[in-house]
């Protein structure tokens, strides 16, 4: 279809102006469109009761006059001559003069004087339908209409007749196509340049994907599913920049399924329902399944996750969820049990180097400074290796740093240096989320390092927390706990000192805050790590908790019950409850007192082990 034909079709069918199209100017639209595409139009009724043009595919036919006897009108344009006997008039699409409908083709060929200087006429005779309001001259519809009609006029006046057929001027068509292609390339280039480097070099073929060999390699589990075209619903769990989104998009492009991409940060329950309904209809009509890629799925609330469950269970959709959080903590167990969990690892330095090296060659090819296959120079290689080392296995971080470093180069042909990378690399945060799994992992690592007596490791994990923005009071509370749990009874006098150090660190955090209290915490950590250890009390109390959980609530023996009233005490009355009866007050005896303190069922139970 020609460009002019597309414009006519768009206006006549989809635009607000086209929906107001009436029988009087319908012929004009048909003529202009037919001149380019040889497609006949017949008017039909739209949902609002107004006549609107609908296309009917046809090959060129012999000329015949416009028929007024039926609601559908076939219009033929080629080789017509003036006709008489029908006084019904229409508007010329070029000069806007009122012309007898039967003579419209002759008028355009021989009498039309071209478009007027003023805009589109707002009125025209109408037959057989109610008068509809035309768009104003300053409205977007009128501007679009005037632009189309001027182009239609130019194309029509440039045409030459050959055997009654219209032949557009080759120069006009070629120039128009060339101009449009140039505009499209310009727009595409502008859009591409505005994208971050990480988005521009995202792999669109599995051969360009780097990392996760156990999943996406030649013998990878996930690749086997892709090759078999039998994809299960899955959760991709991995750290930032490990390739979760890229894998999901590669899957969507490689399997024979329709894909809908959502993000839990910007979509909600309504979007999930809409996607599920579309997937159901698409499966019913075309027999093709739909992949729903849900990024940051852990941000969905439990009730939002429940919306996915029936559609995943029935197979209406194939869910691919991406998350940086442990799915066993963040996802409903019912949904998790119906999905395969694939764990993505942090990228190695070698894999990161491959990614940033390809990004550099692509960037230079875009800047016109070499082909994408050019080798990396030694100067560039040194800088890229340093970049891969400081990126913590995060490809997105590495590419963002590279993007910034490249903007610091004097010219695209300049070599990248370690100094450029260092200038672009400003570590504003560490991989530490106070509300996520890493929060618990690192505090656990510090506590276990203290228990194991490794002061160096304990200091390192303390630093990871404090530099990552952890609340120092949280760390101090854990140190107070460790003082009793791990040092315990190893040294009774030492326990007081240990507890004193821990509490002093806690008070320093309360009164000083960060960064002044960091040394106080470090002092307490080292003291606890190097102190003698005993977990006797800790183990004993764990046994107590286990016994309480497994045994019924046993009654307190009568002789050790509290007896504050006469009714409870033993006074020789039959109504006495005998609380405290037979109790031996230990200070009254010089020798050890033989007396049971546990319930009868637990009298043989020992909680404290002998050191």
Automatic annotation (TrEMBL):
Keywords: ATP-binding, DNA replication, Nucleotide-binding. Residues 55-71 have a biased composition (Low complexity). GO terms for biological process: DNA strand elongation involved in DNA replication; DNA synthesis involved in DNA repair. One of its GO terms (cellular component) is nucleus. Residues 120-140, 150-163, 170-180 have a biased composition (Polar residues). CDD domains: AAA, HLD_clamp_RarA. Residues 230-347 form the AAA+ ATPase domain. Residues 51-88, 113-187 are annotated as: Disordered. GO terms for molecular function: ATP binding; ATP hydrolysis activity; DNA binding; enzyme activator activity; single-stranded DNA helicase activity. InterPro entries: AAA+_ATPase, AAA_assoc_2, AAA_ATPase_RarA/MGS1/WRNIP1, ATPase_AAA_core, DNA_pol3_clamp-load_cplx_C, MgsA_C, P-loop_NTPase. Belongs to the AAA ATPase family. RarA/MGS1/WRNIP1 subfamily. This is AAA+ ATPase domain-containing protein. It comes from Mortierella isabellina.
